[in-house]
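Technical appendix A lists one of the benchmark inputs used to test multi-chain prediction within the project. The record comprises two sequence entries:
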Amino acid sequence: MIKSDIQLDAKGLACPMPIVRTKKVMNNVAEGQVLEIQATDKGSTADLAAWAKTVGHQYIGTKEEGGVLYHYIRKCSAENSDFIEKAFEQTISNEEITARNGLILDVREAAEYAFGHIPGAKSIPMGELEKRLAELDKEQEIYVICRTGTRSDLAAQMLAEQGFTNVYNVLPGMSGWNGELSKEI
Amino acid sequence: MTVNKMTAAQVARKVIENKELFILDVRNTDAYEDWKIEGHKFDYLNIPYFNLLDGVEEIIDKIPADKEVLVVCAKEGSSLMVAEMISDAGRDAFYLEGGMKSWSMYLEPIKVGELANGGELYQFVRLGKGCLSYMAISEGEAAIIDAVRFTDVFTNFAEEKGVEIKHVFDTHLHADHISGGRHIAEQTGAAYYLPPKDAEEVVYEYTPLTEGLTVTLGASQIEVGALYSPGHTIGSTSFVIDSQYLLTGDILFIDSIGRPDLAGLAEDWVSDLRETLYTRYRELAEDLVVLPAHFMIIEELNEDGTVAKRLGDLFAENHGLNIEDEAEFRKTVTDNLPPQPNAYQQIRQVNMGKITPHNDELTEMEIGPNRCAVR
């Protein structure tokens, strides 16, 4: 099962109800959290993806299991995170990390990671990073990656404050990744 | 204000009678751009229903007050929701009963012409999908050609007319829609004919449809003569009915010609297609009325809603019949191919009898426009 913060059961509901319900539940989802929508209406995949795009949420993906569609959407605020200033100074490009052999640390949510990550990348979602620092090696080169470089910027700052010395923020991040992807769906 | 439903049959009459209609299509934009209800005098606005969840205030000015307004979605639910919002905003609105799904399934029977001794020929126009089926009737007997899968439309029509279905033909193994031919034959005891070269993999019994086969309908000597005309598929066959009508299947359309690639053999079949269109058809009488198995664009409809044109006129007007240079012809029909129809490989499997999906799955497979032609 893919991890999500909130689940919505829209099974058996016909269009437009899956989206009507999703919109309502989205009000109770915090920014950055992942909503899982369970639906059986086949049209819900294309419609949820298109709806998410128009309102600015991130449609992560859909997997089908036992006749049920599991859709994953991450709540985003209206402003485009590309324009948020990044504070962490040591950055590295998507292309450069493929040639180096440090650790790729993917701080996106578990669902985002499951629907496609760089082979070999380690997953620690941003919200869990502080309590899972023991899993990381302070001396190793760490390339912190997220979707657009914003969460990874915050994560890189946190790691530096905790005494990690070889930390890089990867830009532009997974949104600009054209290389190989591993999936866990 | 009021919300009323409009049926696919009512929409079909508006298409055929050249009526005005304002369609608010609330499906998502990809679906709308791929395939929509086409009418000569229809106006359109596409706004996905999920952008209207907070109401229609922002778009109400874009909806004309002096036209009938029809809200359309995939299955019905969303169009009803939006039609109610329009009504709350003070306007009348219709929603399409059963949505695009029912539009895709609707067949309008239209008489194409008279046959000898009081016989009649009907064309069943499937406006939503561009499929054309035929029923020839003479003295209590009927023959059906290229029936779509809604078999009861044909059996009910035969019953209304008081005729017995004796012969059921498919001009070729279809790849874009599911044939109802075999099932009609099973239900009525009629003979089912299919070209053997298209039927090598079928898993049921059929009567081979071969060059020169003549079937007599009724006592009036109406002849249905088979003319081998490969090119769209290797077995593709045309029919001449009563020396008046040429049923071309998917070989020749009004404003385009058949595509040779849906069984995966474009390169191999180009020469067959050329031979059929440029030699075999040229030998036929120019006064034959061409009746194809599909239309692609609404402009191909005549004023009475039929899709039919004199062969001689097509030789003059159809671009696909006027490419002198063989190399250029080859290039046109292999390089300019439109996307392949939705689920065409599965549809072929269904028509071979190899798989038997549920009704819902069949509907799903047939979603989208017809794409059997190349222009």
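The first strand of chain B starts at residue 3 and ends at 6. Residues 117 and 257 of chain B are 33 Å apart (CA to CA). Comparable benchmark entries are summarised in Table A2.
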